Fold each of these.
Amino acid sequence: MLTGAGVSAESGLATFRDSQDGLWTDYRPEDLATPEAFARDPKMVWRWYEWRRRKLRGATPNPGHIALAELERLLPGYTLITQNVDGLHQRAGSRNVIEFHGNITRTVCSNKPCPGQWQADDEREPPVCRDCGHQLRPDVVWFGEAIPFQAMQGALDALRECDLFISIGTSSLVYPAAGMAAEVAARGATVAEINPEATPLSSSADLLLAGRSGEVLPAVLATLTALPD
Ligand code: BV8
């Protein structure tokens, strides 16, 4: 399984392609989620992530997240690769989750691989690492940054064994995640897509389930559990 922001849309979290609301209406995520933006204006980028973390505190897993956690218990050889950085899959009970783009709820020192120590009451924006004095940053993969080694290796191992690949709630625009479907299809795997809208993957997928993940995934789960053993 590969999931994108569309799976979290039904938890009330804006997708990357949705227009942002409030203070951030004039900004494109692609222009904020970059090392260059952070170098240019660390306070603005830090505030954007704080705004997203506040939004996330009000969000809960939706039926799509919960169905995926249940499918993991039912299906052997199941791997969930997510582009989402909200941690909602884990909160829904998914155990084997590859966070391909990191996790917004974790903060790290920007001077990797410094382990980073900071004071909770550090009011600076961004706070500063007590070990090395560098600024802190969210533990996410920005555009132009490499996918973390372990996440990439885990994904490659799963794709190597893959016979069914389901792309759920992603616009299939961000690489290298967007290249996964073509990779497994070239090795003969079946590719399915769950999305209310067409994406660049739709024309080549073997199966299209046009609909919202919060509806389609529980229906898939119900169908599977109704099958005779
Ligand atoms: C890298 C974390 C190299 C930050 C994010 C070819 C190969 C490799 C790289 C590239 C390449 N071509 C271009 C690149 C560069 C770039 C890239 O892909 N750019 C794009 C814009 C063309 N890629 C990178 O920079 C990657 N790094 O390749 O590094 C390298 C190698 C070695 C050494 C150094 C460097 C890193 C990419 C990761 C960027 N970080 N997030 C943060 O969140 O702040 S990506 C970001 O976009 C999110 O993670 C998000 O998940 C992701 C993709 O978006 P989607 O999840 O698809 O969300 P989106 O809004 O687009 O779409 C939502 C979909 O849901 C829609 O289709 C909608 O119809 C659907 N939907 C809506 N409601 C529902 C629904 N579906 C179901 N149910 C619903 N209810």
Amino acid sequence: MSRVRYLGLTALLSLSLLGCQKAKPPEPVSPPAAQVSAARLTKAAEEPGQWMTYGGTYAEQRFSTLAKITRDNVKALGLSWFADYDTNLQQTGTPLFIDGVLYVSTAWSKVYAYDAKSGKQLWQYNPKVPGEWAAKVCCGLVNRGIAAYNGKIFVGTLDARLVAIDAKTGKEAWSTVTLDDANRDAPIQRYSITMAPRVVKGKVMIGASGGEFGVRGWIAAYDAETGKQVWRFYTVPGDPSKPQENAALEKAAKTWPKTGDWWSVGGGGTVWDAAVYDPKTDLLYFGTGNGTPWNDQHRDPSGGDNLYLASIVALKPDTGEYVWHYQETPADTWDYDAVSPMMTADITVDGKERHVIMQPSKNGFFYMLDAATGELLRAAPFTDVNWAKGVDLKTGRPNVVKEARYHDKPWNLQPGVQGGHGWHANAFSPETGLIYIATQNAYFPMVADPKYKHTDVGYNLGLDFTAPMTYYQKNPKEKSGFVGYLQAWDPVSGKQVWKGEENQGPTGGALATAGGLVFQGGGSASELRAYDAKTGEKVWSVSTQTAVLAPPITYELAGTQYVAVSVGGPVPGGYFAPNYSRLLVFALNGKAVLPPTKEYTPPPIDPPAADASPEVVQLGSERYGSYCAACHGQNGQTRGATFPDLTRTPLLHTQEGFNQVVLQGGRTDKGMVGFDSVLKVEDAAAIRAYLIARATELKNAPPPPGTAPKQAHEEK
Ligand code: CA
């Protein structure tokens, strides 16, 4: 119903009720919010002024036909308005723009709505995730996006709820706990949600993370009106001695061990990012994550493929019924989740029009599959790859380098476990025929942990997570590091066409437009950039004061094209430094100015004397790797801006204070739970000794000034 009709009805009612009395002016009645229907979603490309779903349209190409901002006028692009978030940490959310309102999710699964004309905040929704849940979140307290349908905004929360919010008021309409029905409080329920829901024909599709800890991966559909579960598809089998839930899982069970405890501790295969609905095939595609533990020698010594780990799977969205799958990394042992963003497209391949689904994967290969059948059409490396020498297009299997499985000795993996590409959104321009990939060159030494035992607290990986430091000290000539950059990739020829500049750590997601531009955040370089989509020439950039990891969107309001992006991420100075998390909105001739940045000096590295024995430090290193590195990074230094740098904590000066936090949970409200169920007093002493040793090393050889904090292990 239009605004005019609403006003008309109200006026009419007022007149008839009041009769001849002097009529008061009617209260303005605004139209309902987020009136996104199934038809509107299917035809989203016909409304380029809106951005109604995570990837722009169901195809998730993140391509806009808006063309008012072009490579010729982009130099005049300036800040139109901005809004500060009340949460810092890392921002990874794709905003939605629907009928004049911008909706965006932030760290801690909060959601904001803004009047896009004035920039005024309309509401904020806070799901109040308990701080202690942070211990069940592998890779940052982030949220990548939301979905809209029929007056509601949907968000998945870190504590694994799916929530519907009234788009008009910001009030909770319903909230559903998505945890597995069985063993609700068991450690195996260490799920969290960071992905954006997708709505398909009145059902909200969502999956959950947790594969680093040990959960059973799934994707499920919920009724958008009631929050009731409609179906759930598990990605890995359950108890092998019992019948599986469906024929697809019976088939999968044959690729897993018949015995062992792998199933009771999860198996992995979590669905934590990519999901694409395709109206042409009426299929829902999603990617699945790594196995638990990572090291397949501990998960399945028989070397089975372990379906459906590290796969793209196609289901019928009405019923959750399996249709096809393609496993990118059989018997994954490298944390090669196949969950990186995907998109559908119509492309001429080998002289034939093909309707395809494409994914630049964490394992370093770019995959193109027939969307209806899953037939593999292309698989080519788009970054440094040393675990496989190509992929056989006939069998679909990678030619794995045997030594890369690190059974006998360490392997300097390329791409490392950070991936050749993470969750950072790609864009595809049908005008250039190029896909713009947020690429990573990353290296990570895989060192098996022969003493691995499953733990109910911390990671379950089966490898030595503190290895990088010592490995590169012993092997200084090996390639190391982690850089991100945007590259334009020809999906048919399998060749790079151009490459943008590099930044430390992951780079930001991309947006392509019919203005001949690709917008992209420069990760830790703290700028938003525009490239010429054809040539890669950098034609515009602006300082954002903080890292830009989230992808920009574009929309039109009152005849003006805008570009909006959520910023906030790793900044020099770490956890306690000002983070400047905001929504930034740009337009041609925008004149708004950000307030100046604040001076900040991180606390000094000032450890007490390092007097522990090498054996104690070694024990501390092992315990730290098992229980602390997940959040605090591999070597005690801050993991991005998300968690404190332990080499600088004053707690190093007192074992009693250290124990209060580490064992007794003195900072549970901030997400640091007590570990006294798994760590003894002597373990805590050893961890402190290890951190003192690390801090002493760093104090004696500090990194060069201005070095961005190492993002050794981004969301994975
Ligand atoms: Ca993973």
